[in-house]
UniProtKB/TrEMBL annotation:
It comes from the Bacteria. Belongs to the class I-like SAM-binding methyltransferase superfamily. RsmB/NOP family. Transmembrane segments: none annotated. This is RsmB/NOP family class I SAM-dependent RNA methyltransferase. GO terms for biological process: methylation. Keywords: Methyltransferase, RNA-binding, S-adenosyl-L-methionine, Transferase. Residues 136-390 form the SAM-dependent MTase RsmB/NOP-type domain. GO terms for molecular function: methyltransferase activity. The active site is at C342 (nucleophile).
Amino acid sequence: MTPAARFAAAIEVLDDVFAGAPAERTLTTWARKNRFAGSKDRAAIRNHVYDVLRARRSLCAAGGDTTARAAILGLLRRDGIPVDTVFGAGGYGPAALSLDEVGSATLPHSDAVSADLPDWLWPLWQESLGQAAMATAQLMRHRASVYLRVNLSRGTRDEAVAALARDGIVSKPVDQVNTAIEVIENERKVAGSSAYASGLVEVQDTASQIAMAQLRSVAGRRVLDYCAGGGGKALALADQTDATVYAHDIDQARMADIGPRAQRAGVQITTLGPSDLMRHAPYDLVLCDAPCSGSGTWRRTPDAKWRLTPHDLDRFSVMQAEVLENAKPLVAQGGTLAYATCSVLNSENDAVVDAFLAKHGDFQRQETLKLVPRAEHDGFFLTTLLKIQP
Ligand SMILES: C[S@@+](CC[C@H](N)C(=O)[O-])C[C@H]1O[C@@H](n2cnc3c(N)ncnc32)[C@H](O)[C@@H]1O
């Protein structure tokens, strides 16, 4: 495909996404219907779509309209790509700009537009991030690197970097935590690499790795990952502690990959259904990596930023409180209840923890880790609560 045709395809996909369709599924459907597109084409189209979604409001403003076509026009203008090499350039690219489009002026900017956030969310974002609100919002317009976690039971970080290099993947260690590697080139080769197949590396953001490193000292002998999903956190804890690690999720189907992932990593994780939880209790550490808006990871899932509603945030707060209530009886005396989200919003973080502590005098707040999104990591929140005598 020509570069212009890739932009035309991105406009086609974005038309559906702007109408409410999920980005990833729309890209997959487009690829199925357009078999002539090769892997490089698909990757380029995906990048255009995600670049727009990260900065949808400001790009539409720069393109003078709220359509997908205007957003791509805004993207070209922002990135200094000559507009006539794409619009009206032939080669199955988008049609030439109309006179109105050529003369379109940048729409007026509010702070929420500059922050590329929905209007209703901007005050909550400011309240949560204070002085860092605008800079953090604007950072979320940029692509985030892929980060890997080295399974230290399988090898060292230097060995992992060397193994990845043998498969043509350029990577480098990350300073903040001794398990993290940033992929610099050829991230799409990771899943097929021998370092991945042999369990030497797993895909995991640096923020999660920093948080799990912090939990090592309170793991004790028995750990329960109460909201395990695909098991990313449980795998990290199993690799880095001597504890027996259990995993649970209300949606048991989500845990389907934990067995194969644990086997690859050479660690043991026992998955538990709801009726098994009490049988193995109490646990020295119960981690609640709660369902949340994911606002700290919106560089990777930018369409979620535009889909989120105030009602969703209320629903998350209810679920988060429920998770802590249900997990509470499983914690051993002197043990730790850890609450985590990948959100930066207070309503999902401190507010949930404060409400829990106001109800339960037998828990005492210990450490809190608040990671604001940066080039090297996503946003993350972790608080540890010690179970004490009431
Ligand atoms: C943020 S995800 C977990 C991600 C996972 N820990 C990881 O590292 O890959 C939240 C998970 O919580 C689960 N969940 C939601 N409500 C729950 C509840 N009441 N009890 C247990 N799990 C719940 C969801 O099914 C979802 O898999």
